[in-house]
Amino acid sequence: MDIINSLGRRKKAVARVYLKEGNGQITVNKVDFKVYFPTGILQFVAQQAFEVTDTMGKFDVVANIDGGGVNGQAEALRLGIARALVKMDEELKPALKAKGLMTRDPRMVERKKPGQPKARKKFQFSKR
C-alpha cells in the first residue's frame, strides 16, 4: 500500500496530511502530536476521524501544518485525515459526513473596518 496525501484547511491553517498503514503514530511538523497539541481537547480533535471510523491505531500520519493558531491547526489536521481516509476507503464517507468531519468550516475572521477599534466594536459616542 502506498502513501495517500490530502489537504485540510481551517481559518488560516493548512495541513498537508500523508497517511499510510502502520501502528497509529501521528507526527506533526516532525514532532509527536501529543507534544505539538498539549491539551487533551486538541488531541481528541486531531484523532476524531479515527474514532468515528474505528480505525484507531491502524494508520500512521505525517502532517505538515502551517499558519493559524493551535485550534485551527488541529481542525485542519482533522479534515485532512478524514479526506485521506475517504480516499483510502469510500465506505467510510457516510459516517464521517454524519459527524460533520467532511465539511470545510468556512468561518473566517471578519476584517477590521476604518473608524472602528475592531471589526464590530465602535468608539464610545460622546454627545458633547
Please explain how this structure is put together.
The protein has a single domain (4-98), classed as Ribosomal Protein S5, domain 2, CATH 3.30.230. 34% of the residues lie in helices and 23% in strands. With 128 residues, it is α+β, with helices and mostly antiparallel strands. The protein has 4 helices and 5 strands. The mean pLDDT is 92. The chain has helices at residues 33-36, 40-53, 70-88, 93-98, and strands spanning 4-10, 13-21, 26-28, 31-32, 59-66.
What would the keywords be for this entry?
128 residues, 4 helices, elongated, alpha+beta, Ribosomal Protein S5, domain 2, 5 strands, 5-stranded mixed beta sheet
Topology:
Blueprint: E1 4-10, E2 13-21, E3 26-28, E4 31-32, H1 33-36, H2 40-53, E5 59-66, H3 70-88, H4 93-98
Parallel strand pairs: 3-5
Antiparallel strand pairs: 1-2, 2-5, 3-4
Helix pairs in contact: 2-3
